[in-house]
Amino acid sequence: MKHLNKQMIYSLLVVAGAGVGISPSNAAAVPSKTNVKMTVTASVAEGKRMPDISAADVVVQRGKQRLRVTGMVPAQGVHAGLDLFIVIDDASAPTLGGQLDDLRKFINAQPSTTAVGVGYMRNATVEVAQGLTTDHAKAANALRLPLGYAGAYGSPYLSAVDLMKRWPDSHNRREIVMITDGIDRAGRSFGLWRGLRINSDVDSASAVAQRTGTIIHTIYAPAIGRSHHNYWEATSGQMEMARLSDQTGGESFYLGLQAPVSFSSYLDQLQKTLDNQYLLSFSAVPEKKPGLQRVKLSTPIAGVELNSHDAVWVPASRQAE
């Protein structure tokens, strides 16, 4: 009987000890991970063949920490869906009319998996002339001459924010082609009175783009008025356009401060970009609050460069909910 009691007591102690060992308050904290996605563009030197790229060929780092890549698939076939909005600054000079045929050809040449929308930036908003549609002829016909008027509160960057916040839900890639001189006529830039200026609205547009997974490409086109004749204003606008595209994984096209003879070479390069995109997924470590986490992408494949957002949106950890 005593022997039985000792066995029972020993068993109870073992169970109790095991309970203490698995108690959440005493267990080692293992950070949960969540799978996040982003669109990546691969590029090679002119004339070189694009090699096959798989998940094993991509390195994703957050600081010194290497994150586990869970997928890298070409944006083709069942993954080819693309929502592409072309937005034109209504402050653009009438000479932009000479580029409309190039834009129409570009729109009509898109594959059936691409939905195209057309809008005009004015008063810090986008007037949608044609919503996203796979009827490319309909989208191309929505193009018109700019009004030559930026509105009372003309900011191409706040216009981009307005469009992204109204974007219909979709699992497709999201990309914008902004045609503008990049000058903020709302006067929200800061810096030297005469000199290069920084526009906080670019940071706002960049943050929204990275949070929503939107890539923004920019094409420089001079506007009406004296602003584009001012070297500092025009250069600042162009640099801010390039900064926005760089931070969101897009391309920025310009030829000095002059209007190009044709957009065709820009659009050809843009098409190459769209044709060489991948859908990347990797494991990120959530924090207490949702937010953007800066990441860096690289590949050991010689001659290949990867371009993407500077940061990816990561939801809050479940423990914090």
Description:
The chain has helices at 2-21, 100-108, 136-141, 156-165, 200-212, 231-248, 264-275, and strands at residues 34-43, 59-62, 65-67, 69-74, 82-89, 114-122, 125-133, 173-180, 189-191, 197-199, 214-220, 252-253, 277-284, 291-294, 296-298, 305-307, 311-314. It is of the alpha/beta class and 321 residues long. It folds into two domains: 34-76 and 277-320, Immunoglobulin-like (Sandwich), CATH 2.60.40; 81-275, von Willebrand factor, type A domain (Rossmann fold). Helix 6 (231-248) links the parallel strand 11 and strand 12 (252-253).
How many domain modules?
A: 2
Range of strand content? 25-35%
Number of helices: 7
CATH class value of the largest domain: Alpha Beta
Count the E strands.
Answer: 17
Spatial strand sequence of the major β-sheet = 7-6-5-8-11-12
Helix content: 25-40%
End-to-end Cα distance: 52 Å
The CATH architecture classification of the largest domain is 3-Layer(aba) Sandwich
- Name the CATH homologous superfamily of the largest domain: von Willebrand factor, type A domain
Order of helices and strands: HEEEEEHEEHHEEEHEHEHEEEEE
Structural class: alpha/beta
Spatial shape: globular
Low-confidence stretches: 1-30
Annotation keywords:
alpha/beta; disordered N terminus; 6-stranded mixed β-sheet; 27% helix; 4-stranded antiparallel β-sheet; Immunoglobulin-like; 2 domains; Rossmann fold; 7 helices; globular; 17 strands; 321 residues; 29% strand
Topology:
Layout lengths: L1 H20 L12 E10 L15 E4 L2 E3 L1 E6 L7 E8 L10 H9 L5 E9 L2 E9 L2 H6 L14 H10 L7 E8 L8 E3 L5 E3 H13 L1 E7 L10 H18 L3 E2 L10 H12 L1 E8 L6 E4 L1 E3 L6 E3 L3 E4 L7
